[in-house]
Amino acid sequence: MGGHHANPHAKPLANQDEEAMANARVPIAFRDTCAHLLIPLNKCRRETWWNPNKCGHERHTYEECLYNSYLQRCEAKVQENKILAQRAAAEN
After folding, report:
1. Of 15, 37, 13, 10, nearest in space to 26 by CA
2. Global pTM?
């Protein structure tokens, strides 16, 4: 189902290089688990004058990382709800 091809470069990273993000002028709101991919994407965008026909691979990798990060958060919430349900059942 789906045929989703996992891109190894689109992996969210918890520990980011704050200095590299500051030097690349990444806005604070975008300094998340995928900021390491936003740096080369923004560099490509600036070099190509934000041409929508360029930087497709970088943009796709960044967006896939955002999606993978979302899936990780959803899975963490499911696990948290399971633990809370088990604790509630144990108390009763």
Report:
1. 37
2. 0.87
